[in-house]
Write a structure and sequence with these properties.
By secondary structure, the chain is mainly alpha-helical. Helices cover about 70% and strands about 0% of the residues. Strands 1-2 form a two-stranded antiparallel ribbon. Helix 2 packs across helix 3 and helix 3 packs antiparallel against helix 4. The chain starts with 8 loop residues before the first helix and ends in a 9-residue tail after the last helix. Bound molecules: protoporphyrin IX containing FE (HEM) (2 copies). The site of one protoporphyrin IX containing FE (HEM) has 18 residues, from helix 1, helix 3 and helix 4.
Amino acid sequence: MTAAPRYAAAARWLHWLTAGLLVVVIAAGLWIVFFEPRDEGFKLRLYNIHESLGVIVFVLTIVRLMTRWRRPPPPLPADTPVLIEWSARVTQLSLYALLLLMPAIGFLATNAWGFPLRVFDLIALPSPVGKDEALAATLSFLHACGAIAMGTLIGAHLGGAAYHTFVRRDNLMDRMT
Ligand code: HEM
Ligand code: HEM
């Protein structure tokens, strides 16, 4: 039996690095919103970790899309049902869109609330929008909607991985590990 074709090493590393970073980004985002820390210094650090790692996810996603363009993913097994193939494609495309949109919207929202970002308190990023609370409220609302969409898509993605592993037993995970 020949080994299943795999994603390129860079694609695999970037996939798992992004997934790991997202766990921290999402946990910090939910912490800020639902369990707002009383200690002001700690709260600001939490914001900074969330925002800085979010910017890193944005940069990694650009790198990932460039490597994907140079080394396209291996073809799916020929017997993959069309419906499965398309639902996976739509989920993955939407995830890529949100991996770019969430940091961009979050960054602009923070700017519009009047807080320019210094990545890990070291690298000051330019503020493309000035303070504008009406715009900030709209962007924050979109960021929260995006967070719900992202949670749903990650759930669907994990459901797909579980379906392939436990129901179809087609070793799909080997492509990404
Ligand atoms: C939580 C954050 C995650 C995000 C944002 C994410 C995103 C993605 C994206 C965008 C792709 C498409 C890759 C491409 O074709 O360019 C992909 C593929 C894949 N992901 Fe994830 N993923 C995440 C977590 C996971 C986890 C936890 C698992 C395993 C349990 C997993 C298993 C896979 C597998 C097996 C593929 C390859 C599917 C195929 O062969 O076509 N992912 N992921
Ligand atoms: C992949 C990137 C990102 C993800 C998945 C993400 C996710 C989240 C989540 C789940 C929350 C809590 C739910 C809510 O919004 O009410 C949140 C809140 C927040 N995020 Fe992000 N975020 C990302 C990037 C960023 C970036 C880059 C910034 C700013 C530079 C940012 C700024 C904020 C702020 C200020 C909040 C607090 C709630 C608010 O005022 O809107 N996020 N984020």
